[in-house]
Specification:
single chain, about 1300 residues, four-stranded antiparallel β-sheet, two-stranded antiparallel ribbon
Length: about 1300
């Protein structure tokens, strides 16, 4: 055998891969046992592969590493440490460094030589490369089968340092080192050289690449299991030193924190311990901590004494991942400590949050008052966010009784950070308030305590809510004469100039909007400027800070969302449905998942428990439709008797059936030719997928407050057996006689403060709401086996009714819709549907009272907010009306669920007539704004789903259609559709505000004319209602809308949802025209207005055909519409139009030359592709997949994660769908935007799959051109056949006549398509 130095020299000086293979095979044979087969000079890869397969046959033990060279160990082959270092470095770098190069340019030099040899030489080189990898894999196995020794540890560490610029090599080195230590940590050498083991592990844990750190952390657990506690202590202190060193990079700190979390998670609660060493953590249940085979009563002292000093400074780190991992490490630590440790940590976190306020825990002053001092500075945002994350974890895992004794101080601290200048801090604090409520879902007093404390002292000025918002707005106005041109501007460019001159420059426009909002919304400032303000009431002074208000809205959103989910799960208990085969009958909301496989729910998936929901089971349910809004009502159901309910129900079966059919049509909008969608109309709305079971015992009837009083003879005990938190709160307010009241005379009103200035209760006989809080404190006494002093503040507690609290929350949210800060306007629109739904479930009387009082014909902020909440409620009533006829299969008690749904629908029916009268007046105002759009949608909903209850249905229909035409004529004044028919008066002037909270014009007129912006706003809001609304319209009225809908297909071609609705609406109109023609007596001609509109539609269709941006499927539907309309007309002038349009479309596509593809070019590309494939194989590392790469390293047992947003969408709730975007991230509460809106469409899943691809394929383009040609050829043949059936005695068909009269170019192209 050659010396190690000579061997290394030969490997380094190998001229090519073939020489390297020979040298490695020589070394392999020297290390193999003497009875091994002789070396073969003529290398045959097929024979070698067969021999390897025979050798490895039956070897299924992947964990057992077989030593390929038992004859010798690396230390003996390379006696010098330098030689061993160099060989180890060569093995790993050569094996895994192909993609990164060898010594910088070696691979590129080899590639340049190989390219001159051609494809065959390249394939030969690739075979040699595979052989090199195969030989090197054997040497790596040789290393992994060795016992731990100092030379090997040093050589591996040397390899890691030499690969400083080769991340792939470092990653694979870490993977193999950790696997080696996993199997060999029990060797004596591992413990003798434990320091070298530490250093080698730290190389991977602190690497600059996150993938390498994660690979090391994921394999750390099995290695440290072999450590003794003393060895673990030394390793832990090394990690602690990295975390505390100022010279450490953030990458190394992150890796050290993840390693600390991994160490803590190896201490696991298990088994029972003898009474002599009991560690009692749950009132009698005895557990022990196990680390490996060692049993402990508590965490070792080196962990408990250092975790606080390690974690708390890192909670203020600038790097987000550091703060998150610090929180995870601390959570893992606290979950393995006594409850006293958690309480101590909670107190320490609050002490740090109190820092800078000048208020200590033993003082009576409240920390949040420090904001009013000029010298106060808020805590650093990073540190505050980290500390609040710790508080969230602790609140979720400690009893609420621990928080109540010092509630005023705790609330003051969290209140301080709910108005922090940093948005991320406010979002983190809102999660704290959510879990304060969710922690004890059986305590309504805690719910009211939190909500009333949040909404108290918010000064609500009703004068601002009821003031006309357009009084001081800048109004854009334009007039149209009978010739279709504007009075001042006579063209599109002049219209833009006029709009620009009306509104001024862009900067002036923004300043006008800001001044108008300031005038209408009051003067507010930043929280850092509160110290400069003066006010009679210190408490109401805080509400002038916009951060204070946004923090409340963030907390409202999370709390109300929890209440809705909790409430629906109790009201609509569901069975778990087994997964069904994918057959196209899936609900629309199932498209939220990327593929249909993820829609299936495993029938026996383990049920997840959540302490944040009171220990009850929460199922993950998929919503059945995300496009509709939700409503709840109970006014009439409270006063009607059971028999009258049944009588009314039986008498209105026909009405319900008709309404249900309309709901189904709305929810399952179909296009002609789409058989799959037609099959899903009946099932799409009722399919609800669920998992888990809520109860193992029968659900008692506890729905008395939704129906009549005959069902309400239930004892309080029965009601509390299975009642949601909202329902328990309603029972409590009813027993305490706390009623809903609305302020009538005061100009401003606030919910009263939770803590009164004088005592209210005798603690010997306190009211029920105080008793609920006392019970929580007494429960703490039982667990702690001690006596807890009752807090003094309880006798000052003054809780308002839940109805008043929710009403105030709704009014506060409406007030924010007109605020000067976009943050408040955004959160107002996001929280409004949730709060509205929560009120519907709690007490519909609150909403109906507000609608009757504030939904007025004036353009006020209160009217706008009430209109929005009414729109949500009507949407929901239509959805529940469908459930009356077809209860979802998941409902366990359909009778009770239908009773609930019926009461809601009846409440909306009872007031729809008077609310539509108000909406009619709002639409008829001369000014068009956001309020007009919402009112228009209310009228469309009423006509579509409550037509038999609306006495002015024809009037509403006319108003809606005229509004569409009015906006279109001003948006496109030069269009042929905009010319008014003979005998009609001129259209009224177009007016819209350009500033204020109700303006639809977000862009200056120089960018987009105001009428077009109003039209875009209108279509965005109501496009999904157009198809179902058209079905309720008269034929002649609907026909006037047909050319406008076809025009919008081209105008809004980039918005797939609008295009789909326009096509569906057009298909409905065409169907109505066919039915009208069939019912028309023989000899009676079609109305001239309908004929004119059909001719206008033909013109619009020809423009659509020329739009290259439209998809082939869209064009196909437009062509089908053309064919159908051709049946209804007697003339043939439209044929010339379609001939010209098809010709221009094909010329734009270049399809006339699409069949002349250069085949030679294609063959060259095919050869280059094959050669490139071999080249890529040569550059590949050829690394097998690691079985542990996907090992979870997160804190799964401590981190109570919420399920994804789509899994929380409930079929009975629509507000959750509207705000699902905010639940995607735990702290950020922003709407999902266009991506989220598109996710509610049936084709969103397919769109999402392609949205991230930027690959421009020539093959796809050629395929589209071929499809376009085939589509138009099929269309022309159908059109020709259609006119061939027309009587034409002794002459050519009308089709042939028009074709012969067309242009020569068009005639040739159409003829080629026909042939």
């Amino acid at each position: 055998m050659e010396s190690s130095s000579d061997l290394l020299q030969k490997l380094k000086l190998s001229a090519n891969l073939s020489d390297e293979v020979v040298n490695l095979e020589t070394l392999q044979l020297d290390l193999k046992p003497s009875n091994h087969h002789q070396q073969r000079h003529d290398y045959d890869p097929d024979e070698e592969w067969l021999s390897m397969a025979v050798e490895n046959l039956g070897d299924d033990d992947d964990d057992e590493v077989v030593n390929p060279f038992p004859k010798m160990i690396p230390n003996q082959l390379f006696t010098g440490q330098d030689d061993l270092n160099q060989f180890t470095c060569y093995v790993f770098m050569r094996r895994f460094g192909w993609s990164e190069g060898i010594n910088g340019e070696t691979v590129q030099d080899e590639r340049s030589v190989t390219l001159q040899k051609g494809k065959l030489a390249m394939e030969k080189e690739a075979q040699y490369k595979a052989r090199v990898n195969e030989l090197l894999d054997e040497f790596i196995k040789w290393y992994l089968s060795q016992p731990v020794s100092q030379p090997l540890l040093q050589s591996l560490r040397h390899t890691f340092k030499e690969a400083i610029n080769k991340p792939v090599v470092r990653n694979q080195t870490v993977v193999h080192v950790m696997e080696w230590l996993r199997h060999r940590i029990g060797d004596r050498g591992a413990h003798q050289h434990i320091e070298e083991v530490y250093q080698l592990m730290l190389c991977g844990l602190t690497d600059i690449w996150s993938a390498i750190r994660n690979a090391a952390v994921s394999r750390l657990a099995h290695v440290i299991d072999g450590f003794s506690l003393s060895e673990l202590q030394v390793f832990f202190m090394s990690l602690a030193q990295i975390c505390q060193s100022k010279e450490s990079t953030w990458q190394s700190i992150e890796g050290a924190l993840m390693a600390i979390t991994g160490i803590l998670k190896r201490f696991q609660w298990t088994g029972k311990l003898a009474s002599s060493s009991v560690y009692d953590v749950s009132g009698g249940t005895q557990f022990i901590l196990k680390f490996g085979k060692q049993e402990l009563s508590q965490l070792p002292e080196f962990l408990t004494s250092h975790m606080h000093t390690i974690v708390y400074p890192l909670l203020a780190h600038r790097q987000l991942s550091i703060r998150e991992n610090a929180t995870k490490a601390f959570s893992a630590f606290l979950s393995r400590c006594e409850v006293k440790e958690a309480l101590t940590s909670f107190t320490e976190a609050l002490t740090r949050l109190r820092h800078g306020t000048g208020v200590s825990s033993d003082q009576s002053s409240l920390p949040h008052l420090a904001v009013l001092r000029k010298d106060y500075r808020f805590l650093n945002a990073y540190e505050a966010e980290g500390l609040l994350g710790v508080c969230v974890y602790l609140i979720k895992h400690i009893s609420p009784g621990f928080l109540l004794p010092n509630w005023p101080e705790y609330f003051s601290i969290f209140n301080l950070y709910l108005m922090h200048p940093a948005s991320t801090v406010r979002q983190a604090t809102s999660a704290v308030f959510k879990y304060l409520v969710a922690k004890d879902s059986n305590n309504p007093s805690m719910l009211k305590l939190v909500l009333q404390a949040l909404c108290a002292d918010w000064d609500m000025n009703f004068d601002l809510l009821t003031r006309d918002t357009t009084a001081k707005s800048t109004i854009y106005s334009s007039d149209l004469h009978s010739n279709g041109s504007e009075s001042n501007p006579t063209s599109r460019s002049q219209a833009t100039d006029a709009a620009r001159s009306t509104a001024g420059s862009d900067m002036e426009l923004r300043q006008q909007r800001k001044r108008h909002l300031s005038a209408s919304g009051g003067k507010y400032c930043s929280v850092t400027s509160l110290c400069a303000l003066e006010d009679d009431s210190t408490d109401s002074l805080f509400s002038k800070a916009w951060e204070w208000r946004e923090g409340r809205l963030l907390a409202y959103e999370l709390i109300v969302k929890f209440l809705i989910i909790n409430h629906i799960h109790y009201l609509f208990p569901s069975y778990a449905l087994p997964p069904s085969k994918f057959d196209g009958t899936v609900s629309t909301d199932d498209s939220l998942t990327p593929s249909h496989q993820s829609r299936m729910v495993i029938a026996h998936k383990p049920v997840q428990k959540s302490v944040s929901h009171g220990g009850t089971t929460l199922r993950q349910m998929m919503s059945s439709q995300g496009a509709l809004r939700k409503t709840m009502s109970q006014d009439e159901a409270l006063v009607e008797q059971d028999e009258s309910n049944k009588k009314e129900r039986s008498g209105s079966d026909h009405d319900l059936q008709e309404t249900t059919m309309k709901v189904n049509e709305m929810k399952g909008l179909t296009r002609s030719g789409s058989d799959r969608r037609k099959r899903t109309i009946e099932e799409r709305r009722s399919r609800t997928l669920a998992e888990g079971h809520m109860y193992n015992r029968p659900i008692p009837k506890h729905y008395s407050y939704y129906a009549n009083s005959s069902h309400g003879n239930l004892s309080k005990k029965q009601n509390c057996i299975a009642s949601s938190l909202l329902e328990q709160t309603r029972y409590m307010d009813k027993d305490l006689n706390k009623l809903f009241t609305v302020c009538e005379s005061k100009q401003s009103m606030c919910v009263k403060s939770v803590i009164s200035r004088s005592p209210l209760h005798d603690m010997n006989s306190p009211p029920q709401d105080v008793i609920a809080l006392l019970n929580a404190i007494k429960a703490l006494e039982k667990k702690s086996s001690g006596c807890t002093q009752l807090p003094n503040w309880l006798q000052y507690l003054d809780l308002d009714s839940m109805s008043n609290i929710l009403c105030q929350m709704l009014l506060q949210t409406i007030g924010c819709l007109g605020d000067t800060r976009w943050e408040l306007r955004r959160m107002g629109h996001q929280a409004l549907p949730l709060i509205t739904e929560c009120i519907r479930w709690y007490d519909m009387a609150v909403l109906t009272t507000l609608w009757d009082k504030y939904f007025t014909p004036e353009a006020t902020l209160a009217s706008y907010g009430c209109a929005l909440s009414l729109r949500f409620s009507i949407h929901h009533a239509t959805k529940l009306d469908h459930f009356l006829q077809q209860p979802p299969a998941s409902w366990k008690d359909p009778e009770s669920c239908q009773r609930i749904s019926l009461s809601i629908v009846d409440a909306i029916r009872g007031g729809i007539q008077r609310w539509c009268a108000v909406a009619k007046q709002l639409v008829q105002r001369p000014i068009i704004d956001k309020l007009s759009v919402v009112a228009l949608e209310i009228l469309m909903l009423a006509n579509s789903f409550f037509s038999q209850l609306v006495t002015e249905m024809a009037t509403y229909e006319r108003i809606v259609l005229e509004c569409f035409q009015h906006i279109f004529c001003h948006a496109y004044p030069d269009h042929s559709i905009s010319k008014p028919p003979k005998g009609r008066d001129n259209l009224r002037a177009f007016q819209t505000p350009t500033n204020g909270c109700l303006n639809c014009c977000l862009k200056p007129a120089s960018v987009n004319p105001y009428p077009q912006q109003v039209e875009k706003k209108l279509l965005t809001e109501i496009h999904s209602l157009i198809p179902v609304f058209i079905k309720s319209c008269q034929v002649d009225s609907a026909a006037a809308l047909l050319p406008i809908l076809v025009h919008h297909v081209k105008e809004y071609s980039t918005d797939e949802a609008i295009v789909r609705s326009m096509l569906d609406g057009g298909a409905s109109i065409v169907q109505s025209l066919i039915e009208d023609s069939m019912c028309r007596p023989a000899g009676v001609k079609c109305a001239s207005s309908i004929v004119d509109n059909i001719q206008l539609t033909f013109q619009e269709i020809t423009l659509v055909l020329q739009d290259k941006t439209l998809e082939v499927s869209t064009i196909r539907q437009v062509l089908d519409m053309f064919l159908t309309l051709s049946h209804l007309t007697e003339g043939t002038e439209h044929l010339q139009l379609v001939f010209c349009a098809v010709s221009q479309r094909l010329e734009l596509n270049g399809s006339t030359s699409s069949h002349f593809i250069n085949m030679k070019k294609g063959s060259v590309e095919e050869e280059d592709s094959a050669f490139g494939s071999s080249h890529l194989a040569f550059r590949s590392n050829d690394i097998p997949a690691s079985p542990v790469d996907d090992l979870r390293i997160s804190d799964e047992d401590e981190d109570d994660r919420e399920p994804p947003a789509h899994s929380q969408m409930l079929s009975e709730s629509v507000a959750l769908n509207a705000s699902s975007g905010s639940s995607n991230t735990p702290r950020l509460s922003v709407s999902g935007g266009e991506r989220e809106i598109r996710a509610l469409t049936p084709t969103a899943a397919a769109d999402e799959d392609d949205s991230g691809s930027d690959w421009d394929s020539w093959d796809e383009e050629e395929e589209d051109q071929t499809m376009t040609c085939s589509m138009f050829a099929e269309f022309m043949k159908k059109l020709k056949a259609q006119y061939s059936q027309v009587e034409h005695p002794g002459g050519p068909s009308p089709f042939q006549v028009e074709l012969s009269n067309s242009r020569d170019r068009d005639r040739k192209l159409i003829t080629s398509l026909l042939n």
